[in-house]
Design goal:
The chain is α/β, with parallel strands linked by helices. It has eleven helices and 13 strands. It has a six-stranded parallel sheet with strand order 5-4-1-8-9-10, sandwiched between helices. A four-stranded mixed sheet has the order 3-2-6-7.
Amino acid sequence: MTRVVVVGSINMDLVTLAPRFPAPGETILGERFLTVHGGKGANQAVAAARLGAEVTLVGAVGDDAFGEQLREGLARENVQLEHVARIADSSSGTASITVAEGDNNIVVVPGANAHVTPAQIEGARLAFDHADVILVQMEIPPESVEATLRLGQRVGKPVILNPAPARKLPVEWLKLARYLTPNQHELAILLGADADENFHSLMRRSPAPVVLTRGGDGAWFREEGEPVHQAGFKVDVADTTGAGDTFNAAFAVFLHEGLPTAARKACAAAALSVTRLGAQGGMPTRGELDAFLTARA
């Protein structure tokens, strides 16, 4: 069983389904509203647990009703919560998501996620010691992302940095990551490059190995030499929310099987995730992923 530590955000997703996206200043009628447990950290933790990993989450929720619901939901998914802090006088993080026309847009309010500190990361050192791989994203303060990268290096464990939402980071931080897992837009921002630059060129310039996600086209990965393509899997798309988080979780869970296999299984898991509504709602189990890959062998 792969042991994964996920450091990241925990949100309540407020999801509106609509026939189309409204224009600026326009009001339209939606079709459905629901609350869904989310946040990139929590999403990746749940996805990894469903794929059979032993998962510890490092993060924070508010001292509010959403916080209690989020903890209960993570516990049901067998995610270990001893390093999930409850922040007094703070709301839990929220993400307001509109789903329309097979796509989504998202506004995130960090709430308690802004209170994840380097000291909290250091307090999880024992979990890092026992992990096989660490996952971290960027919906927590940048100093806590740095602390995760540095602690991972000190204990000799690979850290996968999913740079979303993207911002330019110091090169010395990026060099601490075993893999970066951006899309093309995120990689350009991360490197301070032109968004129109060829993604092969961006991957070659990265100070750390890159696994680049390309939506329905699959992924490209590179450690040395030229980038290698892993084709995507054709499916009927219901909701793309959480596909990137599913990809990252699967990549971490199967990394011990080698980079090409991890990339293939991550693409397959992400494809399965978009066939159902909701970030965590669409995430596949290990059995579902195995059956999907067997049918396409």
